[in-house]
Design a protein that fits this description.
This protein has 488 residues and is mainly alpha-helical. 59% of the residues lie in helices and 3% in strands. It has 19 helices and four strands. β1 and β2 form a beta hairpin. The protein starts with a helix and ends with a helix.
Length: 488
């Protein structure tokens, strides 16, 4: 951009995702674009007029005209953004432009009885609903890929790691089943939130006073022969409240009990579901990043990325982008939670602070889900490397098992002491745990004179060698995997 264009405030190239490869090119990016938000605001305005027409408080012709005009391509999103600075939100200039875009006889029915927050909040719910539909579809694909991995590697043993160190054997099938369980948890929460996303309609301070007045004394009142005479009559109030029901039906969103201008539960629920989903995907990515390290190499990404400087690199790019999303999501969710204590009937700042973090969360999580599907569909598992790593510590991963096996002969405390001593010798002097335990057992003092009954037998070297095979010490990993896969 040249200096003159910059000075004039022109932005010929807006945010195209140059610094956001995680969401660039994803369906979620399109669903959360400025154009998508603009269309959602227009959809909210058109649905409002249609709802009033359905209730007999606006002419059907006006609803048709407003709906026909409510097409985002007909409006200048950049000009609206700049003009929004005057009133603090983009709905104000949009209402002016939409009113000018319809025939004069339809103009009085644009935005009638609503306030800016009604439209922007409803638009946010529409964008969230459309994005969550995409997210849920990707989570379904991801669940299927993880189920496939869990079944294929139900019996594939690898070292379990705690605090970065080899701990005890587990199976890759169980690990994949765990990833899947988190994805299903995220899916359930996202689906529940998606089903409850509400419209917003309350008017200036959440009382629907203007909507009620228009319904009983507005320009179209004579066309509604059953309309009550007094605006505060019970029938008038019921008619006004039914506008919310009809409005929700028009937009396929839920009907709230109350206007929620400063009751921000819908945003908090949405933030929580998105942050949980980011974390669930982040756990998967964290494991892939660890296990695909050069010195580990138990997993690798299919079609891994390269480097601008090092031709040999095969970077786990998908997992990296998912991890980046998981890093950012909690702070964005925290901003939405911080807006819960919203003052008065419309807060100065708390409402405005929600818009960008909400969109960023939707984009991040949607992009991460897209990347997770790609990652798991092409993930390469290396069982031979896993087996080699099981043997790295010469049986130490089975130390817990040997304590269990020796407890009947030695008592638990003495068995743990003996195995700990043997393990220390393996770590410092080499050899196998089976050999070291056999040596420790041989060096034990004889059973004290007068002890009741014969001493329980201790395992011989052949038995110890079998007991220290890591593939024979995966517990109920296979059964747990099977049980996890029964969840739908």
């Amino acid at each position: 951009m040249n200096g003159a264009a910059h000075a004039s405030g022109e932005c010929p190239a807006l945010d195209v995702g140059l610094l956001a490869p995680g969401r660039a090119g994803s369906p979620t990016e399109h669903a959360t674009s400025d154009q998508a938000f603009l269309q959602a605001m227009l959809d909210a305005e058109a649905a409002l007029t249609r709802a009033q027409a359905a209730m007999g408080t606006a002419p059907a012709s006006a609803a048709a005209e407003v709906t026909a005009a409510a097409v985002a391509a007909r409006f200048d999103a950049r000009a609206l953004a700049v003009r929004a600075r005057a009133g603090g939100n983009p709905v104000i200039p949009l209402v002016a432009d939409l009113t000018a875009a319809v025939p004069p006889e339809a103009a009085p029915y644009v935005h009638r009885g609503a306030t800016s927050q009604d439209i922007l909040d409803t638009a946010a719910m529409l964008v969230a609903a459309r994005t969550l539909d995409l997210l849920l579809a990707d989570l379904a694909l991801l669940e299927g890929e993880l189920a496939r991995l869990a079944r294929a590697h139900r019996d594939t043993a690898l070292p379990g790691r705690t605090l970065t160190q080899h701990a005890a054997p587990t199976t890759f099938g169980l690990k994949a089943a765990g990833w899947r369980a988190l994805v299903l948890d995220a899916r359930d929460r996202a689906a529940r939130v998606r089903g409850g996303l509400p419209v917003q309609l309350g008017g200036a301070v959440g009382t629907l006073a203007a909507a009620q007045a228009y319904g009983t004394a507005g320009p179209h009142a004579p066309d509604a022969p059953d309309a009550p005479d007094a605006p505060d009559a019970p029938d008038a109030q019921d008619l006004t409240l039914r506008h919310i029901t009809t409005y929700a039906h028009e937009l396929h969103l839920s009907e709230p009990d109350l206007p929620w201008h400063t009751l921000r539960t819908p945003l908090a629920d949405l933030a929580g579901a998105l942050a949980l989903t980011a974390g669930a995907l982040g756990k998967l990515a964290a494991d892939v990043l660890t296990l695909s390290r050069t010195e580990i190499g138990e997993l690798s990404e299919g079609g891994a990325g390269g480097s601008s400087a090092m031709p040999h690199k095969a970077n786990p790019v998908r997992a990296t982008l998912i991890a980046a999303a998981a890093q950012r999501a909690p702070a964005l969710a925290a901003t939405l939670y911080a807006s819960l204590p919203a003052a008065d009937e419309r807060p100065p700042g708390a409402w405005h602070a929600e818009w960008e973090p909400l969109r960023d969360l939707l984009r991040l999580v949607g992009g991460a889900a897209r990347d997770a599907v790609d990652l798991c569909a092409h993930l390469q598992v290396h069982p031979a490397t896993m087996r080699a790593h099981l043997d790295l510590t010469a049986g130490l991963l089975t130390s817990e098992r040997l304590v269990v096996e020796l407890t009947p002969s030695l008592g638990r405390a003495r068995a743990a002491e003996l195995v700990s001593a043997a393990a220390a010798k393996v770590r410092t002097g080499g050899g196998t745990l089976a050999d070291a335990v056999a040596a420790e057992l041989t060096a034990l003092p004889p059973r004290p004179h007068g002890a009741d009954g014969p001493a329980p037998p201790v395992p011989d070297l052949t038995t110890l060698t079998d007991l220290t095979d890591p593939t024979h010490w995966t517990g109920c990993a296979e059964a747990l995997t099977d049980r996890a896969l029964k969840r739908r």
